[in-house]
Amino acid sequence: ATTTLLSLVSGATLAWLAARSDIPGKRVLRAMVFLTFATPPYIGTLGWIQALGHSGWLNLLLMRAFGLAHPPIEIYSLPGIAMVMGLYFYPLVFWATEGALLRLDPVYEEEAALSGAGRGKVLFKVVLPMILPALLSGGLLVFMHSLSCFAVAAELGLPRRRYLLVTLVYSALSHYDVKGACALSSVLLALSGGAFFLQRSLLGNADGGVRAEGGRARAMELGALRVPVGILALAFAAVVALLPLLSLVGTSLVRAWGLPLKPGNLTPANYLELFRNSLVARAIRNSLGFAGLAAGISTLLALGIGYLAERTRLRGRRALELVTALPLAVPGPVLALALILAFARPPLALYNTPWIIVLAYTVAFTPIALLTVSGGLRTVEGELEEAAWTMGASRLQGLRRVLLPLLGKEVLAGWILVFLMALREIPLSLMLHTRGTETVGVVLFSFRDTLGVEVTAALAVVVMAITLAGRLWVAGIERRLWGKGGV
User: Which terminal CB of the chain, N or C, has fewer other CB atoms within 10 Å?
Assistant: First the structure.
């Protein structure tokens, strides 16, 4: 609840400032929101530990500044877990709320203003009720993600034996308590599933009055507060996005965690250790290969299911779409347990093979690709395909020659999203890997105990560099194919 509340307050506030105010730096603000979401939660959590752990530089700075004997901020706690989750999931609320605000027909606000309503009354009596379904939908999405966020819960909770449901499932499986893990998974699935169906219901009502047919609303002028509010908004978004990453860079460059960044303390040894470790290279290859293969399969499945749902009258097509989306409600450890039970024995004994990880990624992230591809299909007029059919083209030829070229952006966007989600995934890989199929997430999870915080920070920096370089490479492809308006 605390995580969801923090995400709702921060995400909705920043979304309103970005969509409806005249603050400066909106492009930078949106970039910081995206960077926060693009940072894998486990890597971000490691960064916050470098800053707010017992030897973290920010805690040490506060202790020296105020003469304290103990760190003033305890990140290894339930409030610490809620804070980190809330800060990493607020982009979900931001995007849901900003999208609703940008689509909202300004005629309602103009009519309220003409009747004498002040700005505050227009905001709370007119705007808020109309975007409430989208806002609550974003909040429920945060709730679902927080239930299954193993990385933050494990890294900040397990060292002090503070358990959440998701870590209890992992702990039960670690002790070979399959019955206990199944019972806990049932509770977790019931909570997540309830939130999932409620969120879908809200999404069905989210566009009731949100239509920008009358044009986009004029930005609210903040007057003298414009620059100070803009600075505060940018400072919050930049701190959340950059502070943990910069903390990781600093830790990766020093001989021991907690030492100040002075020339005598700097060393390349942590990065050299990575290049000497064959497990790192294998984990990176595995992660890129598993994520790329799963992204390709998921995108093809999404294209087929989306086409059946949006372009045919096949009975049960909406049920097929719903079944495909159900894994959104299944936390990672629960899905991993289900796959272990289903594929541990012949005839499909995939457990202890690389294919079970690819299958897990495909099942977990095909709904993400489906949302993107289905959205694109709804924007393409069906008459274009019908025209091709009247000229003698088959349905398959119409799909290949007409629809696919028009859906290029959405297909690429779906592939990118699945690839990034698979690349940052931890609980599925942690519970399904075997010797030789380790992924970057598995290695990151184990390195802190085996090679220390400094080498783990160096690996986290390398992973973030690969992720951002890959995103820039894809952005270059987008510009060459579609110009500035890429995905």
Answer: N
Q: What angle do CA 21, 1, 7 make, to 5 degrees?
A: 25
Q: Give the angle subtended at the CA of 183 by the CAs of 180 and 188, to the nearest 5°.
A: 120
Contact 184, 168 (CB under 8 A): yes
Q: Are 119 and 217 in contact (CB under 8 A)?
A: no
Residue type, 130: M
Count other Cβ atoms within 10 Å, centred on residue 337.
23
Helices of type H across 160-268: 165-174, 178-205, 226-252
Regarding whether 455 and 375 lie in a shared domain, the answer is yes
Whether the predicted pLDDT of 209 surpasses 60: no
- Check whether residue 152 and residue 277 sit in a common domain: no
CA distances from 169 to 147, 187, 328, 430, 443 (A): 12, 10, 18, 13, 20
Any bridge partners for residue 254, and if so which? 266
Residue 228 dihedral angles phi and psi, to the nearest 5°: -60, -40
The yes-or-no verdict on residue 259 having pLDDT over 60 is: yes
Q: Are residues 287 and 390 both part of a single domain?
A: yes
User: Phi, psi at residue 254, to the nearest 5°?
Assistant: -105, 160
- Angle among Cα 31, 459, 78 to the nearest 5 degrees reads 70
Distance CA 373, CA 309 (A): 11
Phi-psi region of 439 (alpha: psi -120 to 50; beta: other; left: phi over 0): beta
Range of the domain at 51: 1-267
Query: Are 260 and 274 in the same domain?
Result: no
Report the C-alpha gap between 384 and 409 in whole angstroms. Answer: 18
pLDDT band at 108 (very low <50, low <70, confident <90, very high): low
Averaged pLDDT, 477-485: 61
The helix-helix angle for 57-66 and 41-52 (nearest 10°) equals: 20
117: left (phi over 0), alpha (psi -120 to 50) or beta: beta
Tally of domains in the chain? 2
Q: What does the alpha-carbon distance between residue 273 and residue 278 come to, in Å, rounded to a whole number?
A: 10
The DSSP bridge partners found for residue 127 are none
